[in-house]
Design a protein that fits this description.
Strand content: 25-35%
Radius of gyration: 16 Å
Shape: globular
Strand order of the largest sheet: 3-2-1-4-5-7-6
Oligomer: single chain
Structural class: alpha/beta
Number of helices: 6
Distance between the termini: 46 Å
Length: about 200
């Protein structure tokens, strides 16, 4: 196990988080101010649940986190609702209904840590990752309100610039973010978008 991974793995265990990936979200939150008290946030590809854990703590008792994954999300909190299903088969209207049930007409943010099962073929994995990111973007544009944010993992490769262009056409503010807790050799980066255009 690599030293940096060792450090974040042990840190997550010590601090009670379900996975080391929590520090990627935490770093972005500190940099861009993603998560506010009372916010309603959708978390796609949430399992095992470290992002959900962190977001639930940040939005507080008057906020809500809707966590979506085909695998089990091991988070139980009063302000967390878990949907065990395939995010790619979920219609935006279904998530809007969940938000309306807690008195919200839109989400304040959508975050996605979805990633393909890696095949060893970097090009194929990249194409699949972009496909997941495009699905997350589509969902975000349907759910997020005028001041809301989008935060999404995507693998770098030949289609990355095309996806980034889609994001820049969709949000007033767009940044590419590489967390310190990502391994240096990793092809993952995160796209942050805020304030959907046309809302």
């Amino acid at each position: 196990m690599k030293k940096v991974r060792d450090h974040f793995f042990k840190k997550a265990k010590k601090e009670g988080f379900l996975a080391r990936s929590v520090y990627k979200l935490q770093e972005a939150d500190k940099k861009y101010g993603l998560l506010k008290k009372g916010a309603a946030v959708v978390d796609l590809g949430a399992a095992p649940g470290s992002w959900t854990q962190y977001a639930a703590e940040r939005v507080g008792e008057h906020g809500v986190v809707v966590a979506v994954d085909i695998h089990s999300v091991r988070v139980s909190a009063p302000n967390v609702e878990v949907l065990k299903c395939d995010a790619l088969e979920l219609e935006p209207e279904e998530l809007l209904e969940r938000l309306r049930a807690v008195g919200r007409e839109a989400a304040d943010g959508l975050m996605s840590d979805m990633a393909p099962k890696t095949s060893g073929n970097r090009s194929l994995d990249h194409i699949r990752s972009v496909g997941l990111a495009e699905s997350a973007l589509h969902m975000a544009l349907a759910l997020v309100g005028p001041e809301g944010f989008f935060f999404c993992k995507v693998f770098q490769g030949g289609e990355f610039d095309s996806f980034l262009k889609q994001c820049r056409a969709s949000f007033h503010e767009v940044k590419v973010f590489k967390p310190k807790s990502s391994r240096k050799e990793s092809v993952e980066v995160f796209i942050f978008g805020r304030k959907p255009i046309g809302k």
